[in-house]
Amino acid sequence: MRRTGKIMQVAFTYIGTVVGAGFATGQEILQFYTRYGSAAAFTIGLSCLFFTWIGIKIMLMAHKLEAQSYEDLNRILFGERIGNYVSLFTMIVLFGVTTIMLAGAGSLFKEQLNMSYQAGLLLTIIFSYLVLTRGIQGILVVNSIVVPVMMIFSVIVVWSTLSLPNAGQWLQLSTDSSAWRVWFSPFLYSAFNLAMAQAVLVPLGSAIRDRSVLFWGGLIGGIGIGVMLLAAHIALAARMPDIAQFEIPMGQIIRHLGPVIQLLYVFVIFGEIFTTFIADAYGLTLQLEQRTRISRTQGIVLILAVSYLVSQIGFSKLLSVLYPLFGGVSLLWLIMMLFPRRRRTYTL
Question: Quick one: how far is CA 278 from the chain centroid?
């Protein structure tokens, strides 16, 4: 039972790291999958394959290398010199995503709970500090609480969709997009999320000494991400094309389930933002500790403080500028994960 618990902690942490604000609102699923019609079921399957295969691979490589942070992994993938530059860029990307998540939390408190933007930022930072100072164990515990709740809401959303006249529309939707765009989308989505997930998957792989726990945790986590993607896609597809006009499409679906469920869903969105935020902040802390002489606690305080300052720019502005920039480099990283330079030494 103890081993099973560890496996589920790894799986939940993997899911919680990948599932962020864009996933919770439904906007990512809509843009990367549902808009491409019936082919989305197959592209989600392809993404699920990547999340399962590469997620396991990252953790087992980190386990074998005893990697301190994702920088050790990038040096193996790209070589010492290029790997150093890739890690530096990844550090910038992680910081960008961290500030986006923090800004998203502030916007959520303001728009959904009628609290001030600054109060949302400060509460998120305080909760994050309490978790991050407990290291990887704190992240495991938080995800073990938040992710099962996310999954319950996925079941509720699909269950509410089954009674609709268009419940089977996810198998019949058409699209005007080219085949190239349809099939490129899952590569881009998977690459970006996996490149970001290494911030936690690498130290997780190094911290847990049982390879089988990492394997099964990665397998369940990757499949879990795929199932949650498909569940959201089914719900969104049943309400196309009208649902595409909303900024938070999943919020519109939940709204019809009553005010109590709607309020609970706001906290689910916050939980999904929070798990991604602490994962990326933790990865940054390890990288900062490895590259400088400051302690881990000092690194946590520095990252949270600078994230607070940058998040004053606002959620939508950060999102529109930073995300497209990160996508291309993430694809290169995915290719290197698929075909590592030192194949004989690090084949899993």
Answer: 11
Sketch the domain layout of the chain as residue ranges: 2-339
| CA distance to 90, 202, 209, 238, 343, per residue, from 65 (Å) | 19, 10, 12, 46, 14
For the stretch 245-279, pLDDT in tens is 776 787 778 777 778 887 888 888 888 888 888 88
Angle at 188 between CA 186 and CA 194, to 5 degrees: 95
Mean pLDDT of 82-108: 80
Instruction: Determine contact, residues 61/73, Cβ cutoff 8 Å.
Output: yes
Output the CA–CA distances (angstroms, integers) from residue 321 to 3, 190, 195, 230, 317, in the order listed: 43, 20, 18, 28, 6
Section 299-316 average pLDDT:
80
The model's pTM = 0.84
**DSSP output for 91-159:** HHHHHHHHHHHHHHHHHHHHHHS---HHHHHHHHHHHHHHHHTTHHHHHHHHHHHHHHHHHHHHHHHHH
Count other Cβ atoms within 10 Å, centred on residue 130.
Answer: 12
The answer to whether residue 344 scores a pLDDT higher than 50 is no
b/e burial code for range 185-200 (CB count within 10 A of at least 16 → b): bbbbbbbbbbbbbbbb
What architecture is domain 2-339?
A: Orthogonal Bundle (1.10)
Region of 199 (left: φ > 0; alpha: ψ -120 to 50; beta: rest) is alpha
Distance CA 139, CA 91 (A): 19
**Region of residue 37 (left: phi > 0; alpha: psi -120 to 50; beta: else):** left
Residue with tokens 């490895």: 290
